[in-house]
TrEMBL record, chain A:
The keyword Membrane applies. The keyword Transport applies. Pfam families: CbiM (PF01891). It comes from the Bacteria. This is Cobalamin biosynthesis protein CbiM. GO terms for biological process: transition metal ion transport. The chain crosses the membrane at residues 12-31, 43-61, 68-90, 96-123, 135-159, 179-203. It is found in: Cell membrane. GO terms for cellular component: plasma membrane. Keywords: Cell membrane, Membrane, Transmembrane, Transmembrane helix, Transport. It is a multi-pass membrane protein.
UniProtKB/TrEMBL annotation, chain B:
It comes from Candidatus Desulfobacillus denitrificans. This is ABC transporter permease. The chain crosses the membrane at residues 6-36, 48-69, 75-97. Keywords: Membrane, Transmembrane, Transmembrane helix. The keyword Transmembrane helix applies. It comes from the Bacteria.
Length: 227, 200
């Protein structure tokens, strides 16, 4: 899902960096206010966890597999702020060390996958938890994959409209929304289903280990800190 | 030049490259970056090409197919976008090869701490996942069923969760034992030692 370097115009990534800067400051301030000296090691551990979850292969029906996103797991267990910061750091390390993603696309990727993905997961979970907890976790994980997919498709699909030569030749990503929306979203419906199964299994494991105690029901736990 | 200044120079170069829309100029900049890359230039260039190969090939072939079908094919566009992507990724790898990323993050002690700790733990997690995969492969002579693969993925994710929660607590204790935290913050200033402890 990562957008690589070179396909986003400055008209897109510079405002995205401004928005992401505000979001990073919001997340860091909330963490600093509510956590103690374990903030730094916990953020580092969650960053490594977010990276590691991205290496886990999610089985998809048909014998194929895709990489887990893991942001729903992080957000449900540790809150939106921590999930967003950890995921942003993962994207930074991936872009600089492995060339995956990219420094120009970092802000868009972080906002889409880290912030929108984790917020979608927590909001879906809170909205549906009273009906059925397992279904709420599954739908939260599915939403945490599909919503970022939609945002990435939109960011890519508007490039031909906002950055092109006088003759209409694109300067960055070449395909419009009519291609990017189905091309990105359709596979993510299935990847989201795989992510949902994985998240439910890990959620049960976490409950058995009693890690779910700080989980947000409404207005409590890390997801609500300082908000 | 300090590592932080290298970081700023790299970021400025990246932004500047995205404002260039002439293929010949990007090619000249790529040639200049290769020339300045030192002994490891071809290794870095190979890494950069391999890192972008899948995505760029998909986009380039897709663009060629769609634009030929619509009669709007532009070879100049393909050259421009591929040169730009390769140059940006080459600059990133060159920066990391030349500058210690941890030194470059020194402007923020917190960021430096987090990146240092995370980078070490990422290595540990990568090794653990490799062991998981090898063990899973060794236990399955035939292709495993979907349910088995799902359970395996969940076991890996659960193990990572378990390890990361423990690591956070252990690292906090290790940092405290090495004096990383100010234990006297918010406490009254230490009192003078009792007279019995003073040297005559």
């Amino acid at each position: 899902m990562h957008i690589p370097d070179g396909f986003l115009s400055p008209q897109t990534y510079l405002p995205a960096y401004a928005a992401a800067g505000v979001a990073w400051a919001w997340a860091a301030r909330g963490l600093r206010r509510t956590l103690d000296e374990e903030t730094v090691p916990r953020l580092a551990a969650m960053t490594a966890l977010a990276y590691g979850l991205g290496l886990v292969m999610v089985p998809i029906p048909g014998g194929t597999s895709g990489h887990a996103l893991g942001v729903a797991m992080l957000a449900l267990l540790f809150g939106v702020r921590l999930a967003f910061l950890a995921y942003s750091l993962v994207l930074l390390l991936q872009s600089l060390l492995f060339g995956a993603g990219g420094i120009t696309a970092l802000a868009v990727n972080a906002l889409a996958m880290g912030l929108a993905g984790s917020a979608a997961a927590v909001l879906t979970f809170r909205g549906l938890r009273r009906l059925n907890e397992t279904a709420a976790v599954a739908l939260a994980a599915w939403a945490s994959v599909v919503l970022p997919g939609l945002l990435v498709a939109l960011a890519l699909g508007v490039q031909p409209l906002i950055a092109h030569k006088e003759d209409g030749t694109p300067l960055f990503f070449p395909f419009g929304l009519s291609i990017t929306l189905p091309a990105v979203l359709l596979p993510h419906f299935f990847i989201g289903a795989g992510e949902a199964v994985l998240t439910v299994l890990v959620w049960r494991f976490a409950r058995a280990r009693r890690w779910c105690s700080p989980l947000p029901l409404a207005g409590e736990g890390p997801g609500e800190e300082g908000s | 030049m300090t590592a932080t200044r290298w970081l700023l120079a790299y970021l400025a170069a990246v932004v500047a490259v995205t404002f260039i829309h002439e293929a010949w100029l990007l090619a000249a900049l790529l040639a200049a970056a290769l020339a300045a890359g030192g002994a490891g230039r071809w290794r870095i260039a190979r890494r950069a090409v391999l890192a972008v190969l899948t995505f760029n090939l998909t986009v380039s072939l897709g663009y060629a197919a769609v634009s030929l079908w619509q009669g709007r094919f532009s070879a100049a566009y393909l050259l421009l976008v591929n040169l730009r992507v390769v140059l940006l990724v080459y600059l990133g790898f060159w920066f990391v090869a030349r500058v210690n990323l941890l030194d470059a993050c020194r402007f923020s002690p917190t960021l430096s701490f987090v990146v240092t700790l995370a980078a070490g733990q990422i290595e540990a997690f990568s090794r653990a996942l490799r062991d998981f995969r090898l063990a899973f492969a060794s236990r399955n002579a035939a292709a495993p069923a979907l349910a088995a693969r799902a359970r395996h993925a969940a076991a890996q994710a659960g193990h990572l969760l378990d390890k990361s929660v423990c690591m956070a607590a252990e690292t906090a204790l290790a940092m405290r034992s090495r004096g990383c935290f100010d234990d006297h913050a918010g406490l009254p200033p230490p009192q003078a030692p009792p007279a019995a402890c003073k040297k005559p």
